[in-house]
Design goal:
Elements (H helix, E strand, L loop, with lengths): L6 H17 L16 E4 L6 H16 L5 E8 L3 H8 L7 H8 L10 H9 L4 E5 L2 H10 L12 H14 L6 H24 L5 E4 L2 H4 L11 H4 L2 E8 L9 E5 L7 H8 L10
Parallel strand pairs: 1-4, 1-5, 2-3, 2-4, 5-6
Helix pairs in contact: 1-2, 6-8, 7-8
Length: 279
């Protein structure tokens, strides 16, 4: 179940996070680094890092204040929910963010992090596009392969190996290589679909909210963009201090979010692989 709070409370809490985050910018992420400059922006995240969400929201709202009206594409919505999203967006007046999340949002996301982005999109009349391949569809990709499910089957071996290695690492060494490889197919499918969304909306401008793994320029969605769209795009990794990954057009660092050891929980509770690594 998702944690709910009234929209006004969620907005106030997020604004407080923005203020706190910007106050810390001198040592972590100066505000100028968060200016969104190109028409196609892949804006990464560590999913549970509240400071990163606050900084990204400030950057998104600043972009809207400059007059831009991009599509908001979100990993947090599965593409099977697009008809629901479109129906709600066609209503007058438009629904509140929490109503849209209640109708189209899935489990596994802390929605108070994302509702302020949805609120901003609703306020300015922006399209909201689901950018994720859901779990059931991902399982089919794992069983039947990319080509059988409508995705591009030609994947460089180096990319597949890197995706599989990242999945093994994110599962704390509890996966066998064959399972990690099958899960890598689902990750590639998600990246390919995100690239399709970005290409479709590149003329208008689009901001994608997605995990850092999806916005990596070497193995993520940028790899699958046509050259003309890639030239108009920027992949921004939102990283925690100490993360050495460099596979982004630009990196913004924040303090690490306090969290329990995920490997300890996984060893206790996960008998097999999860269908979707949160990267």
């Amino acid at each position: 179940m998702h944690t709910r709070r009234p929209a006004r409370q969620a907005r106030a809490a997020t604004l407080a996070l923005v203020v706190a985050a910007l106050a810390a910018c001198s040592t972590t992420a100066p505000p100028q680094l968060l200016q969104l400059r190109l028409p196609v922006v892949l804006l990464g995240e560590v999913h549970d890092n509240a400071e990163q969400h606050a900084l990204r929201l400030a950057a998104f709202e600043a972009l809207l204040a400059r007059g831009a009206r991009p599509v908001l594409a979100m990993e947090q919505f599965d593409r099977t929910q697009q008809p629901v999203i479109d129906r709600l967006l066609a209503q007058q007046p438009r629904p509140e963010a929490q109503a849209l999340v209640a109708a189209a949002g899935g489990p596994g996301w802390h929605w108070p992090h994302y509702e302020p982005f949805i609120e901003a999109a609703l306020k300015h009349g922006l399209p909201i596009v689901a950018a994720n391949v859901g779990r059931e569809e991902a399982r089919r990709v794992m069983r039947e392969g990319l080509a059988a499910t409508g995705f591009q089957a030609e994947v460089p071996e180096a990319l597949m190996a890197q995706q599989a290695a990242a999945i093994e690492a994110s599962h704390c060494g509890l996966l066998d290589a064959a399972t990690a490889r099958r899960m890598a197919l689902a990750q590639v499918a998600r990246d390919q679909f995100m690239a399709r969304v970005l290409e479709t909306h590149s003329a208008r401008g689009v901001v994608l909210l997605a995990g850092n793994g999806h916005v990596r320029v070497d193995v993520g969605a940028p790899h699958w963009l046509p050259p003309a769209v890639r030239a108009r795009s920027e992949a921004i990794g939102m990283l925690e201090t100490g993360d050495t990954q460099a596979a982004y057009d630009r990196r913004v660092f924040t303090a690490a979010q306090a969290r329990p050891d995920p490997c300890e929980k996984m060893r206790r509770t996960v008998p097999g692989p999860a269908p979707e690594p949160r990267r």
